[in-house]
Amino acid sequence: MTLAKKHALEIVNADSVQVYRHFNVGAAKPTQEEQNQVRHHLLDRVGLPEIYSADRYREEAWAVVNDCHSRRVVPLFVGGSGLYFRAVEQGLACMPPVDRVIRDAIRREGQRLGWPVLHERLQGYDPDLAGRIPANDSQRISQGLSVAIATGIPLSLWQQRQPPPPPLTILKLACQWPRDLLYQRIDSRFDHMLAQGLLDEVQNVWQAGHDRDHPAMKAVGYRQLFAFFDGHCSLEQAVEWAKRESRRYAKRQITWLKRESGLISIPWNVPSQAFAAVTEFLGQHPL
Question: Which of 19, 81, 190, 282 has a CA 20 to 30 Å removed from the CA of 51?
Fold first, then answer.
């Protein structure tokens, strides 16, 4: 927020949960007050049961980029989802449309037979994809089977038809935290979310009876509290589970960031480095 205010930037959400309506506290979505202070894009794009895909994100994010550039404004992407960042920076493979009837039929079969059974079936259609995903990854198994059945071409082959990355000059920054301090902040952050009304928010979503295989319903924090409302665990157990999964997610994000080329790591206690990097970048690349 401070960076955006100082340089008159507009913030573009790159979090895969903040795109959904009614997922607010648990997604750490900017408050209305914060949105009034700095213009934000790509929040609350859809409501359940609709699924917001990475391909749709890429299209809408590029529309935002072009709009910002037409007004001589620099967009500041903030988040969350490495796939979203990659979609904007590198593009995505050309994916065919799949009839919803096929997707729904596969989802029902996965719920009835179990996703490991459908994972075995996927090995017959697309052994390369099946070898890269866990046997319980319902979203990617469903996508792989849907594409293969609808088109007769394995998803792994579609993914190889990736277009060249669009021309875009990017400054990539990441805040670097000591592991123990990061984990402390994660735990405190979840406690703060509970104090801000997370439990009521999750209960409202839970009562709506949405499909648990929906990507948003599997988000860290929500999934664990759903288990509490289902009666599978105590609230204390759900909270500890959510904190543990949040720490694991952070660890995966750190691993992802280590593979990012051109990334500048900013020590958590030296924010002036971020301001200096942005100032230099804007000076070298005026719109």
Answer: 190
Six token digits for residue 191:
């406690």
DSSP codes of every residue in 223-287: HHHHHHHTTSS-HHHHHHHHHHHHHHHHHHHHHHHHT-TTEEEEETT-THHHHHHHHHHHHHS--
> Does the pLDDT of residue 4 top 90, yes or no?
yes
Which domains, ranges and CATH numbers included, belong to the chain? 2-92+164-284 (3.40.50.300), 100-160 (1.10.20.140)
DSSP sequence for 92-127: --------HHHHHHHHHHHHHH-HHHHHHHHHHH-H
Q: Which two tokens stand for residue 73?
A: 């404004």
The tens digit of pLDDT for each residue in 70-125 reads 999 999 999 989 889 988 988 877 777 888 899 899 999 999 999 999 999 999 99
Exposed, middle or buried: residue 73 (CB in 10 Å: 0-12, 13-18, 19+)?
A: middle
Residue 277 has phi, psi (to 5 degrees) of -65, -40
What are the φ/ψ torsions at residue 10 (nearest 5 degrees)? -115, 135
Map residue 81 onto helix, strand or coil.
coil
User: What global pTM score does this model have?
Assistant: 0.81
CB distance 69 to 12 below 8 Å: no
* Separation of alpha carbons 134 and 136, rounded Å: 5
φ, ψ for residue 75, nearest 5 deg: -80, 140
Give dist(CA 239, CA 190) in Å, integer.
8
Cα(185)–Cα(191) distance, rounded to whole angstroms? 10
- In the sheet with 75-78, reading across from the earlier edge strand, the strands are 40-41, 10-13, 75-78
Length of the chain: 287
